[in-house]
């Protein structure tokens, strides 16, 4: 591991020592070890704690971008730890304790690591009260779209993109299958966006963030959005949201500690 990355890893680690202190030890003047860190309680109305979040990921990763985008749109600063997938850092024991699936992204919030970008979006929306649903019906609709995104859209788009970048090899038959699946998902989305400006509610939510995190890469999957004018218009609307940034603007090439 490079020197800067080692330093970054050390700083990004939550302070485990305090949490491991035996509860029975008499320390009346100090806070109880198990207390939730103040960092984990800040919300949209509370003070911003810039040490609260560390995002583990890499620049080329769509799911990492999705999480970085959500934090940026929510105007919440975060530290960033670059995970070197080429060197297999995501399969090393010190990373697998953060993400049991051996994938990026992972998000540290206080002392807890969250994984799976859709689940991370949900956690951030609940905690920061941004881009969230305001009623149970809205929350459920948002969840529905997040599941749909990974079920129907993300997999074919990311597989096609990986093939185009030489990261995955499969033949033309499989390529056509993914292309057909991606276009069927786009047609569905096109139809929905004829009825509403945003995907799940009348406001932008994490459903939009999750879907944008895939459609950002649609051209790299060699799919033209021209036949989907509602999707194209929604994409432009999303890019005009305050705080929006491209992957290159949001994710650094190297670790960055706040
Ligand atoms: N469903 C996961 C997908 C994460 C994922 O596919 N990450 C890729 C990078 S974009 C990865 O870590 N690949 C390495 C591997 O799966 O071994 C999420 O949304 O977080």
Structural notes for this entry:
- The chain is globular.
- A hairpin with a 2-residue loop joins strand 3 (106-109) and strand 4 (112-115).
- The chain has helices at residues 3-12, 16-20, 62-73, 93-96, 117-128, 136-164, 172-192, 206-215, 229-239, 247-250, and strands at residues 53-57, 79-82, 106-109, 112-115.
- The chain has a 4-stranded mixed sheet with strand order 2-1-3-4, with helices on both faces.
- The chain starts with a helix and ends in an 8-residue tail after the last helix.
- It is built from 10 helices and 4 strands.
- 37% of the residues are buried.
- The chain binds glutathione.
SSE map:
Layout: H1 3-12, H2 16-20, E1 53-57, H3 62-73, E2 79-82, H4 93-96, E3 106-109, E4 112-115, H5 117-128, H6 136-164, H7 172-192, H8 206-215, H9 229-239, H10 247-250
Q: Characterize the main sheet.
A: 4 strands, mixed
| Helix and strand sequence | HHEHEHEEHHHHHH
- Largest beta sheet: what is the strand line-up? 2-1-3-4
Unreliable parts: 1-5, 13-44
Structural class: alpha+beta
Count of separate DSSP helical elements = 10
User: Averaging pLDDT over every residue, what do you get?
Assistant: 88
CATH class of the largest domain: Mainly Alpha
Ions, cofactors and other bound molecules: glutathione
- The helical percent reads 40-55%
Q: Which CATH architecture of the largest domain?
A: Up-down Bundle
Number of strands: 4
Shape label: globular
Kindly give the count of domains: 2
Strand content: 5-15%
Supply Rg.
20 Å
CA distance, first residue to last residue: 20 Å
| CATH level-3 fold name of the largest domain | Glutathione S-transferase Yfyf (Class Pi), Chain A, domain 2
């Amino acid at each position: 591991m490079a020197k800067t990355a080692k330093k970054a890893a050390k700083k990004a680690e939550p302070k485990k020592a305090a949490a491991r202190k035996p509860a029975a030890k008499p320390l009346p003047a100090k806070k109880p070890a198990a207390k939730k860190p103040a960092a984990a309680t800040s919300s949209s109305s509370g003070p911003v704690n810039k040490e609260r979040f560390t995002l583990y990921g890499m620049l080329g990763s769509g799911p990492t971008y999705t999480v970085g985008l959500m934090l940026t749109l929510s105007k919440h600063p975060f530290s960033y730890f670059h995970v070197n997938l080429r060197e297999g850092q995501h399969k090393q024991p010190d990373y697998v304790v953060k993400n049991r699936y051996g994938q990026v992204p992972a998000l540290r919030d206080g002392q807890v690591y969250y994984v799976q970008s859709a689940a991370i979006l949900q956690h951030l929306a609940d905690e920061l009260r941004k881009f969230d649903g305001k009623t149970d019906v809205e929350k459920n609709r948002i969840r529905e779209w997040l599941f749909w995104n990974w079920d129907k859209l993300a997999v074919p788009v990311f597989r096609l993109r990986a093939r185009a970048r030489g990261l995955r090899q499969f033949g033309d038959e499989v390529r056509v299958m993914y292309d057909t699946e991606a276009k069927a998902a786009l047609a569905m989305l096109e139809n929905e966006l004829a009825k509403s400006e945003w995907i799940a509610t009348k406001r932008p939510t994490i459903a939009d963030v999750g879907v944008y995190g895939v459609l950002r890469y649609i051209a790299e999957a060699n799919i033209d959005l021209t036949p989907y004018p509602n999707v194209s218009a929604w994409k432009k609307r999303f890019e005009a949201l305050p705080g929006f940034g491209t992957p290159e603007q949001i994710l650094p090439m190297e670790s960055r500690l706040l």
